[in-house]
Structures are given as C-alpha cells and as structure tokens.
Amino acid sequence: MSLPRRLCAEALGSLLLAATVIGSGIMAQRLSGGNTAIALLANTGATVAVLATLIALLGPISGAHFNPAVSLVEALRGKLSWSDTAVYALVQVVGCCAGALLAHAMFELPIVQASTHLRAGPAQWLSEGVATSGLVLVVVGHRRSENVSWMVGAWIGAAYWFTASTSFANPAITIARSLSDTFAGIRPIDVPAFITAQIVGALVAIALARFLFTRIADGHEGERLNAEVLD
C-alpha cells in the first residue's frame, strides 16, 4: 500500500477517533444530568464502538495505529520504517487535533480551547502506563488479524473503568484532549507526564511480549503463540 494512502487512513482514523472521544463526552455530559458514571459509560460505549469499526475498516490499509505509541512499537519490531513512523506520528497528532476542533464545531462550542481538567499525580501516570502496556500487548500478541478490532476495543473499554486516568493510552489523543475544555479534556501542563508514562508503558509491553509470545524452552518444544511477534 502506498505511503500517501496509508497516511490518509491514519489521519482520517485519528480524526474520527478524537471526534468520537470528545464529542461523545460532550453529549454524555449534556444528557447525564450531572451523573458522572452515566456520562463515562456513554463515553466508553462510543469509544469502543468507533475503535472496533475504524480498525476493521482501515486496518488493511495502514495497520490502523492512530497512536504514536503503537507506531513506535511497530518500528521497534521492524514492521515499520523509522521514516514512516515519524510521518505516521505527525499525521496522527494532526488528525486527532483536527478531530477535537470538529467535535467543538458539531456542538457549537468555541473551536479553539485549552482544557482546565486536572489529571496529574503518580496514580494517573501509573494508570497510563498500565493502559498503554495492555494495549500494546494486544497489538503485539493477537493470534489472528480479525481479532484485533474487538480486542483493542474491549481493552480500552475495560481500561476506561479500571484505571484512574480513564485510559488515554495514546500520545496523539492526549495532545488533542488538551485542546478541549470538556468532559474528556486534560490540562496542557499535564500532557508531558501522560505521554512519558504511555511511552514507558509501551516499552515495558515490548519486554513482556518477548517473554510471553516466543518459543518456550523448558526441556521440550514449546508452542509459538504468535508467528508475527518480534520476528
């Protein structure tokens, strides 16, 4: 697949993902009557649905990363060149930021905003590391390509609820969410720590994948769980 087509898929997927995360947060907050649990449940459902759909739709074109941490992991695995990784990350960030602006436009909010939503502290950073590690393990360790869409969606949906940070797990969407002073936002000052935790989580997942998803030598032939892992 040509690079322009792959970049178009990554940009479009990133835009729609961010628009869904932020837009569903706005809608959920408006309709929930101040019930944060209901708002988060609605936000989760929309995010899971769009992730599964976009991965199934655009995965055959670009791999459906929509996430610089995933693109970094694919580069470390030798599945993506470093030059392609750089432009993937760029269009992912631009696409996610455009998605934030699109969400604001659809809900008649000021297009350009800066979030005031506090998300900081060791618990938040640990949560982002865990959420990103799990995501990368799913990406690296899946056995069949047709499983990726539902597995990624399921992981992110679960991590919305079991992590203190509500599972951003994506540097590009973290940046985009700093541009939205809405339910899904994060203060710009909190972004660097989140991204650092996400990258650390991704690197930890690579180390775990080397241990979990390759042949086990225990005195007899072990089964290779995933022929694509760290070739």
How would you characterize this protein structure?
By secondary structure, this protein is mostly helical. It has one domain: Up-down Bundle (Glycerol uptake facilitator protein), CATH 1.20.1080.10. Helices cover about 65% and strands about 0% of the residues. It contains 8 helices and no strands. It has helices at about 5-30, 35-60, 70-75, 80-105, 120-140, 150-160, 170-175, 190-210. Helix 1 (about 5-30) packs antiparallel against helix 2 (about 35-60) and helix 2 (about 35-60) packs antiparallel against helix 6. It is globular and about 50 Å long. Mean pLDDT is about 90; it is low at about 215-230.
Summarize the structure.
The protein is an all-alpha fold and 231 residues long. Helix content is 67%, strand content 0%.
Strand content: under 5%
Count of helical stretches: 8
Q: How many strand elements? A: 0
SSE string, helix = H, strand = E? HHHHHHHH
Helix content: 55-70%
Cα-based radius of gyration, to the nearest Å: 17 Å
- CATH topology heading: Glycerol uptake facilitator protein
Distance between the termini: 21 Å
Which architecture does the CATH hierarchy give at level 2?
Up-down Bundle
CATH C-level name: Mainly Alpha
- Number of structural domains: 1
Shape estimate: globular
Computed structural class: mainly alpha
What is the mean predicted local confidence, pLDDT? 92
The stretches of 5 or more residues where confidence is low (pLDDT under 50) are 216-231
- How would you characterize the largest beta sheet? none
Q: Would you identify the CATH H-level superfamily? A: Glycerol uptake facilitator protein
